[in-house]
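Per reviewer request, we include the raw input and output of the structure prediction for the construct analysed in the revised manuscript.
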Amino acid sequence: MKNTKGDLSLQYENESWRELARMLIDTTEYVHPRQKNTVLSSVKNIRSDWSLLRDNGYGATFNNQIVDPMFDSELFMVFDLYIRFRDRFPNESRHPKDFFHGLFERLSSGGEPANNLEAMIIEWLPCRHFIAEEHLRNWLAKKAHAESVLLAKKYQTPKYTILGMGLLDGRRMSASKGTAILSKDLIETHGGLNTRLIMLLQGGHLSKDFTYDAHLTNRVDKMVRGFARHAIKVRSNLTKTPSKKPKKIIELEDKIIANIESGYLRNALILLLDTCPKMFIDPSPTEAYFLTELYENYIERVFAPGALNHHEA
């Protein structure tokens, strides 16, 4: 349609389309329940007075203009997959316009791919867990509009996590304004392992805004050193023939899993790096066996690769 400025635009005010988007958002899983309401409330904020095309920039071309990425960036995964695989199938990618016309027919109907290039792209869909920052909530509402009409249910994104924003001195961090803590600076000063833990331990739930705590760097260093000493002791008591897993380790693991699944990563890390060493100061051989298993499953593979082999300086 043409908007009030005479520019080509998408008719986001169309109530039938809005309702499709709302229904999709309502049936989608969000790591924190309130995030769903954030995106639902954004549906009414997107409007047709935003022009679809512009004269320059990066993006797909239409009528000798560029499609503003704000309108088709939710499809970049499909475009990126095409670019990644097109050279393997030169005959099928010779006419991109015809190819995408056929591809989106299959994506919207859920039908079987018509050729090898389509099959390679469809194999990667859907994106099973999409992570975005809170300030992109309008974009996520647009993404729901696009997926509701372009993608069959099996290709629609089933799960989202919306990250909270970091605050520094009471203001939202902004790299462009110079009010941000850069990860590369933290890595140079504190190393990769400690930086990872500093970032994971900053906030409560990952969907909530957090205030950067400059004093956390020292606490993390102390925690890592203490855990390293504990891990050495655990390994020195390790048995190869354990008896039944102790109840208190089972209970700890249940708490860790519950915190991870609900998005409270900081709580799970504290249980692993701080609570466990305090609970098992002098672990039995069986306790040491199952503690090692616990640490390998959740510290080494999920949170902090290398922490088990970290040596105190």
